[in-house]
Design brief:
Length: 153
Amino acid sequence: MNTLLTKESLLKTNGDGEGGLKGADLDGLSMAGIDLSGTDMDYSDIANANFDGASLEGVNFTGAKLTGTSFKGAFLNEADFTDAVIDGCDFTGADLLAADLSVKSYEGAIFDKADLTSVWIDSDMFSAMQREGAVVEDVNSGASFAGNSKQVS
């Protein structure tokens, strides 16, 4: 029998006692469709997890290990990925409005068809990232096309 994973059950079993998941080990866990908006998940091990279709607005992923995690179609507006490792992550179709993508590592990360409007991102990462069909408007970086409104194909 499958148990429905909720924010409350996740915090009860993996929480840091302060309403967050700071430093939690969530490696390989499926959290598809869950609403974890505003949750503090900094410095957590969330590798190979599944957040497809999840609501993660304002989540703090600072310093988190997210290698191989799927965020397909996830709602990540204003999420903070500062110093996170996002190698091999799949953000296809994700909404990343005003997210901070000042990550430590991003090798193989996919942002196809993602909304990257107003993201904060290193210009080298932005130039190198896979982002076919992504919506790109007012990107905050040193990239030569920052501030332009266009869809990149």
